[in-house]
Amino acid sequence: MKLDVIKLDGGSAGSVDLGDEIFGLEPRADILHRVVRWQRARTQQGTHKVKTRGETSYSTKKIYRQKGTGGARHGDRNAPIFRKGGIYKGPTPRSHAHELPKKFRKLGLKHALSAKAASGNLVVLDEAVAGEAKTGALAKQVAALGWKRALIIDGAQVNENFARAAANIDGLDVLPSMGANVYDILRRDTLVLTKAAVEALEERLK
């Protein structure tokens, strides 16, 4: 697959060949769904907690005598049957992460890249470099290119001035190539890869 390369000012910078084994697959929603679920489960805090009957603050004294009341037999007010009593089998702090094979995760990233290429929302940029960390100047260039919700993936290192300039632009994310992931690629409308990112991703996913 051959794609045109552009510069930040909108000019042409030649073209690049993209490997069909990474950018030319038929996207499968089931694979993308599984990888996104794996990613989101890993980021879930899992700090939910309720009090059991041993942790509520009522007295443990027997609330009334065993017999002769005409009611049910009860001990202390901490029982789950009572209002404000302990919760039975409620949530406790835990990790929501689950395993997903490395090969499957790589396959998911390939399908995410292929999905952007198939929909025409993949852009190859010559380089993501800014002479100064000026948000206004970069915002004008991004607006001129028509990027409203975009993810820019650079090579091993992101240019510091470019990253600082992009930090305050709403809807624009910048990641190094090792940070490329399925969730961030799919949640943005446009995927922008620098030539260095293309080389790094092809090396990573081959």
Number of helical elements:
7
What is the element string, with H for helices and E for strands? EEHHHEHEHEHEH
How many beta strands in the DSSP annotation?
Answer: 6
The helix content is: 25-40%
Pfam families: Ribosomal_L4
Region (Disordered): 64-97
GO biological process, one term: translation
InterPro entries: Ribosomal_uL4, Ribosomal_uL4-like, Ribosomal_uL4_dom_sf
Structure summary:
By secondary structure, this protein is an alpha/beta fold. The protein has helices at about 20-25, 30-45, 100-120, 135-145, 160-165, 180-185, 195-205, and strands at about 1-5, 10-15, 120-125, 150-155, 170-175, 190-195.
SSE blueprint and pairings:
Elements: E1 2-6, E2 12-17, H1 20-23, H2 29-43, H3 102-118, E3 122-125, H4 135-145, E4 150-153, H5 160-166, E5 172-175, H6 182-187, E6 190-194, H7 195-205
GO biological process, one term: translation
Region (Disordered): 64-97
Protein name: Large ribosomal subunit protein uL4
